[in-house]
TrEMBL record:
Entry EC number(s): 5.4.99.12
SUPFAM superfamilies assigned to the protein according to its UniProt record, in alphabetical order: Pseudouridine synthase
Catalytic residues of the enzyme: 51 (nucleophile)
Gene name of the encoded protein: truA
Subunit-structure text: Homodimer.
Record keywords, A-Z: Isomerase, tRNA processing
Role this protein plays: Formation of pseudouridine at positions 38, 39 and 40 in the anticodon stem and loop of transfer RNAs.
Family to which this protein belongs: Belongs to the tRNA pseudouridine synthase TruA family.
NCBIfam families associated with the record: hisT_truA
Pfam families to which the protein is assigned, alphabetical: PseudoU_synth_1
UniProt source species: Methylophilus aquaticus
MF terms in GO: tRNA pseudouridine(38-40) synthase activity
Record's protein name: tRNA pseudouridine synthase A
The reaction(s) this protein catalyses: uridine(38/39/40) in tRNA = pseudouridine(38/39/40) in tRNA
Binding sites annotated in the UniProt record for substrate: 109
């Protein structure tokens, strides 16, 4: 049978989602824990890969197994074999043609930025930080330029292996909660470091080092070397995956609550 799982993790404890030679990827820990319940090796396939330091409020993955177990065994049993900074939130049986990555219609991320002269202590590793005041209206106007289908080469990592830089952005918004700015993005897919690069450029706009028009020009020029530096991974959260309703998966969309 094929089982889909929803996963939450603190990315600061891992070297990204993908399996690593030193077994310090999120995937490594989950596969080892699931194998304890299945009684045999398990291979996970995820909706998207996250880099080192990037968190997930709702990552979705699937695996195949011949082991018949209650769904709660895949949740509570697996969690009993995991470190406290990663948790399976739910498990759900899916049809053979489901694929966590290829069945996904869209993916959502949020970047949480603490804006204060002094870096946070209790939120260290969980949020990004910028020390100078930022202007929300300018960042909101610039973010709106990202909506629709674009070539996002201006915000693509040089080592990105995606076949095409064209993506369709359906949500690009900036909001404020006290000292926190929340950058929200939803697209059919994302390029490597795309969100951290977009946030870096939007922060330039927020401190008036780059105009809204200049931000729009960056997008059109499609040249990564002209864009601001990549922002830190600490505040980036994979918040959800959109699937067609017929898969009947539990809630696959979360948001940062502070």
């Amino acid at each position: 049978m094929k089982i889909a799982i929803g996963v939450e993790y603190h990315g600061g404890w891992f070297q990204g989602w993908q399996s690593q030679p030193n077994r310090q990827g999120v995937q490594d820990h989950l596969e080892a824990a699931l194998a304890q319940i299945a009684g045999t090796q398990v291979r996970l396939h995820a909706a998207g890969r996250t880099d080192a330091g990037v968190h997930a409020l709702m990552q979705v993955a699937h695996f195949e197994t011949t082991a018949a177990r209650p769904l709660q065994a895949w949740v509570r049993g697996t969690n009993a074999h995991l470190p406290p900074w990663v948790r399976v939130r739910w498990a759900h049986p899916v049809a053979d043609d489901f694929h966590a990555r290829f069945s996904a219609r869209a993916r959502s991320y949020q970047y949480v930025l603490y804006n204060h002269a002094v870096a946070p202590a209790t939120q260290h590793g969980r949020v990004g930080w910028y020390h100078r005041p930022l202007l929300l209206p300018f960042m909101q106007q610039a973010a709106a330029c990202l909506l629709g289908e674009h070539d996002f080469s201006a915000f693509r990592a040089s080592e990105c292996q995606a076949k095409t830089p064209v993506r369709t952005m359906v949500t690009a918004d900036v909001s404020q909660q006290g000292l926190f700015f929340i950058f929200s993005f939803k697209a059919n897919a994302f390029l490597q470091h795309q969100i951290r690069n977009m946030v870096g450029a939007l922060v330039y706009v927020g401190q008036e080092k780059l105009s809204v028009e200049g931000f729009a020009d960056l997008l059109q020029q499609q040249n990564r070397t002209l864009s601001p530096p990549t922002f830190m991974p600490d505040g980036l959260y994979f918040t959800g995956v959109q699937y067609d309703a017929h898969w009947q998966l539990p809630d696959c969309d979360q948001s940062w609550q502070g």
